[in-house]
Here is the input.
Amino acid sequence: MEIFGISTQALFGQLLIGLGNGSFYALLSLGLAVIFGLLNIINFTHGAQYMMGAFVAYILLNRFGIGYWWSLAIAPVVVGATGVLIERTMLARLYKLDHLYGLLLTFGLALIIQGLFRNEFGSAGLPYQIPAQLTGAQNLGFMFMPNYRAWVVVASLVVCLSTWYVIERTKLGSYLRAATENPQLVQAFGINVPRMITLTYGFGVGLAGLAGVMAAPIYQVSPQMGADLIIVVFAVVVIGGMGSIMGSIVTGFGLGLIEGLTKVFYPEASNTVIFIIMAIVLLVKPAGLFGTQK
Here is the structure.
C-alpha cells in the first residue's frame, strides 16, 4: 500500500524514527525549560551533560559490569551531582548579572567537558548494546516496531508528563515557581531557597543525563553527540516558549514527527525544517507557541 507514492512501511518507519528523535528533543528541552523557567539560566552545558549521561552508562557497563537498567538510575544522579557542583561554585555568582554571562560560562564549560572526554575516549563513536529485554521488534502488520524505540517513546513521555505535573500541580512546584518570583517572601516561610535552586538545576541536568543513557543504544556514544543536538534542542525550546514546560514537551514530540515526515516527502529540507519553523514562529509570536510575553 502507498500514500502519495510512498510505501506505508517507509512512511510509518520514518514517523517512528521522528517520534524517537522527538522523545530526546522533549527530554532535553524540558530540562532546559525547567532551568530557564525557574532559574533564568540559559544552560549551554546541557548538550555536554547529555553526552556525560551516555558515557556514564558506557563506563558503568564496560568497567564495572553494571547494565542498562541500573544506569538509568545511576547516570542521572551522577550528572545531576556534577550540575549541583557547577551551580554552587560558578552559576550562583551570576544570578544578579545579565543572562549573557551565564550563557558564556555554560558555553565555555561545554567546550571544556567535551574536550576532556575527547582526550580520554577519542572522537570515534563507541557502541552500547541494547538491553536483552528490549531487543527485537513487533510486527504491526504495516510495519515492524523496534521494542527499544517504543520503550524510549513511552518512557520519555512518562518522565515529561510527570515533571510537568510536579511543577504545575503540586505544592513543591508552587514553591519553586514562587521562589523565582519572590525569593525573599518564600524564604520568610522557612524554605531554603538557595538549596531549592541548586536541586532544581541538578534535576534539570539529571534529565539530560537520563536522555543520554536512553540515547546510548540508538546512537554511538561520542564526545560530539551533545554538540550535534543542542542547537536543535534550543530551537525546540524557542519554538515552544522559553521556560514553558508543556511547550517543550508538545513541541519536542511534534517537531520530531515533522522532521520524520520531511525526510519522507522532502529529504533535502530535513536538517533545516526545525529552524525554518523557528524563524516563522519568532516572526508571528516572538514569545513562542506556549510562551507568554513579559
User: Anything to note?
Assistant: The mean pLDDT is 89. The chain has eleven helices and four strands. The CA atoms of residues 184 and 193 lie 8 Å apart. Strands lie at 2-3, 6-7, 137-139, 144-146.
